Amino acid sequence: MSDDEIRQLARAAGLAESWTDALGIPQQVSIDSLRRILDSLGFKTSSFEDLEDSRRRLGPPSTLPPLVTVRAGTRLTLPARVGGAARGQLTYEDGSVATLRFSMRGDKLVGPALDRIGYHRLEFGDRQLTVAVAPTRCVTIQDRAEGKHLWGVAAQIYSLRRPGDGGIGDATAVRQLAESAARHGADAVALSPVHSLFAADPGRYGPYSPSSRLFFNPLFADPEIVFGSERVAQHRGDGGPQEEAPLVDWRPAAEGKIELLRRLFKDFEAQDVPNGTEPARAFEAFLRDGGDLLQGHALFEALHGKWLGSQPGLGFWRDWPPAFRQGLLRPDDPEMAAFLSSERATVRFHQFLQWLAAKSFEAAQRSAVEAGMKIGLISDLAIGMDRAGSHAWSRQSDLLLGLNIGAPPDEFNRAGQDWGLSGFSPQALVATGFEPFLATVRAAMRYAGGVRIDHIMGLQRLWLVPEGASAADGAYLDYPLDDLLRLLALESHRHRAVVIGEDLGTVPRGFRRRLSDAGIAGMDVMWFERNRGGFRAPARWRRDAVSMTTTHDLPTVAGWWRGSDIEVRDALGLSSPGEAEQRQSDRRRLWRAFVAAGTAEGAPPPPEDPAPAVDAALGFAASSPAPLMLAPMEDLLGLTEQPNLPGTIDEHPNWRRRLEPRAADLLDDPVVARRAATIVARRP
After folding, report:
1. CB 635, CB 557: distance < 8 Å
2. What confidence score (pLDDT) does residue 330 get?
3. What is the DSSP code (8-state) at residue 399?
C-alpha cells in the first residue's frame, strides 16, 4: 500500500499529517509514526485487508450516535440514518413530549430549533438517542461577579497547615484559608488537583499524574467532618513531627493518615453500621450514588495494594495475573470472584475513604460560600491519567492506552515532551455518548464553584506519542471540540460553575476566540505578557482571562527577581547560556512597566531585595481588566521557591513545600494582609 493511502487513512482518523514548530517551520509526520499511531487507535495497516477494514470503520456511521449536542436556539441536525423526511418524539427532562419533524438537507436530517437546555430523549421508532441542548456559553466569572472585579488566592492543598493534619494539608485547611481570604475581600480559592493518586504507593504524589480524575485523593479528607474531633482523637496517633516539617514527607505522612482512617473505618463498621446511625445511612446512599464507577475504583485500590505488596511487587496492572488485568470486564471470573469475597472489607474501606473526602470538600465549598465568596473553590482538572492507574484499569475502552499525551519539540524542549499520561479515545467518546467526559467534568464541578482545565487545548487536539517512541515522533489527533464545548456549557450551568482554561504554550489559531465565545476564561500570566519593548501594560491584558503573577510551574516573583530559579536550574544542568545577563535586562524592563502602571516608583531594588518587586507585581496583575485575579500564596508570602520545577523528578522538592503560618492565619500575617489590601485597591 502506498504512503498516500496511509496519509489518507490518517486524515480520516483525525490525525494531522504535519505541524508547525515553535520557529514557524512546517514539519511532516513520518509514515512510520502515522502507522504506529493508527495501530494504537485500532486502525490496522499491515495488509490490504486491514486497510480496507479501517477505511470502512472510518466511513459514515451505520447508526445514530447515542448522544448529539446542539446549542440552544439552533436547529437539531442528525446524520441521515432514518431515511428521508422523518418524525421523532422528543421527551424533555420534565417528562413533557413534543413531536419533531425533520427534512433532508444533503446528507443530514434537519429538525426544528430547540431552546430548552438539558438532556432530552429523542425516539425514531425503535431507535433512540440523547439530545443535549446546551446554553450558548458557560456560566462566566462576570455572571458570578455581579459587577465586581474579583480576586482570589491560589494554593497547593498539601502545603496548607492546620493542627492535626498529620503532615499533609487537607480540605479543612482549605476551608480555613477560604474563610480567612474571604475576610480580606477574596472571592475564590484556586486549588491544586484533588484527583485520586495511588493509596498503596504514596511515593507517587505528583498531582497531575492521577490514577483517576473521577475520585479524590483520600489524604485530603478530614474525618472530623463526619465523626467530630473527640471520636477522631481516640484513634489519632502522634503526627507532631510530620506536622512541623518544612517539607511533606509523603510516604510516612500518608501511611500515618491511612492508618488513622483504617482504625476509624473499623470503629464505624462495628458501631455505626449495625445500629443504622445517620452516618451509616449516608454512607450507604453514597455507595448507591457511586455505583459501578465507585466500585471499580475501590476494587482497583484493593488489587493494587495486593499485587504491589507481592514478591516481586507488581505496580502496573498489565503485569498482574490474567484474571485481574481486565478491569470490570470479567467480574464473574472465579479468581476475581474469590478476591471480591475475601477482600470485601478492603474494597469497602476504599469506598469509605472516598465518602470522607467527598464530605470534606463539600463542607469546604459550603463554608467558602457562607463566608461571602462569590465563587469559592476552583478545582483543577488534569489533562490525563496515569496509564497504570484506576481509570486505565477499570475503563480500558475509554482510553488510548498505547499512546501518551505530550507536546511537540519547541524552543523550551527541543526533544518534545512525553508526559506519560493517557487520554480519552475520540471514538470511544462518541460511541459512549461522551459518558467518560461528562463523568469527569461532573466530578470536577461537584464541590466547587469553578474548574480550571489544564492544557485546555486538549479539547481540540492532543499531541500523542506511541509508547516507546520519542516525543518528536508523535502527531496531533483531533477531538470533537464543538460537542465538548457544548457539554461543558451545559454542565457549567447545571453546577453554576465557572470554567477557566489553561491556554498557555502552543495554541491553535482561532482557539482562544472559540474559548471566549464559549464563556471560558483564559489565563494571562505576567511572565508571558510581553511585547517587543518589554512587558505589556496590564490595561492591555485580556478582559476574558484570569490574571496571575505566576503559576506552580514557573518562578515566584521573589525567586525570579533574585535569579534563584536560574541558580537552581544551573545547578541541575537545565539552564541556558546567557540567562543571568538576560534576567538583568528583564528586571529593568519589568520595573519600568511597574512604574508606568503606577504600582512602583523610583529605581528598581537590587536582586537581593525582592519584596518591593513582589508588592509591585501583585498590584500590576490586579490592575488588569480581567474579571478575576488569582494571587499565588507563594507570592503573597514573598517566597523564593516555586512548588514545581518542570524537567525534574527527585532532583528538586517538587510538590512538597509547606507554608507558614497556619492556613487559618495566612491572610492575617501583616505583610500578606497589606498585599491583599493592595490587590483590592488595584482591582478596576
Report:
1. yes
2. 66
3. B
**Which residues 6+ apart lie within 8 Å of 544 measured at CB?**
515, 516, 521, 522, 627
DSSP secondary structure of 164-185: T-TTS--HHHHHHHHHHHHHTT
Q: d(Cα 42, Cα 48) in Å, to the nearest integer?
A: 15
8 Å CB contact between 288 and 356: no
**How far is 391 from 436, CA to CA, in rounded Å?**
10
Q: What is the pLDDT of residue 85?
A: 63
- In terms of DSSP H, where are the helices of 376-498? 390-394, 426-431, 435-445, 481-495
Q: How far apart are CA 217 and CA 310, in angstroms?
A: 24
What gap in Å lies between CA 343 and CA 578, rounded to an integer?
59
| Cα–chain center distance at 627 | 21
Cα dist. 90→67, 121, 123, 129, 135 in Å? 13, 6, 6, 10, 18
pLDDT at 327: 82
Residue ranges of the chain whose pLDDT lies below 70: 1, 22, 83-85, 238-240, 329-331, 411-412
**Based on C-alpha coordinates, what's the Rg of the chain?**
26
The DSSP output letter for 608 is T
For 203, the grid coordinates are: 511515593
Amino acid at 79: P
Q: What is the pTM of this model?
A: 0.96
Are residues 657 and 159 in contact, defined by beta-carbon separation less than 8 angstroms?
A: yes
Specify the 3-state DSSP secondary structure of 496. coil
- What is the model's pLDDT at position 525? 98
Q: Which three cell numbers stand for residue 572?
A: 541541575
User: What sign for the dihedral angle of Cα 5, 10, 16, 17?
Assistant: negative
CB 617 within 8 A of CB 679: no
What is the per-residue pLDDT for 19?
87
Grid cell digits, residue 201: 504507593
| 422 CB neighbour count, 10 Å cutoff | 25
| Pairing of the two strands 150-155 and 628-632 | parallel
One-character DSSP codes across 320-381: S-GGGSSTTS-TTSHHHHHHHHHTHHHHHHHHHHHHHHHHHHHHHHHHHHHTT-SSEEEEEE
Identify the H or E element spanning 587.
helix 579-597
Instruction: Give the DSSP per-residue string, 528-557.
Output: G-EETTEEPPGGGS-SSEEEES--TTS--H
Grid coordinates representing 194?
484533588
C-alpha cell at 525: 500570566
The predicted pLDDT at position 240 comes to 66
Tell me the C-alpha distance between 672 and 615, whole Å: 10
In the chain, the amino acid numbered 415 is: A
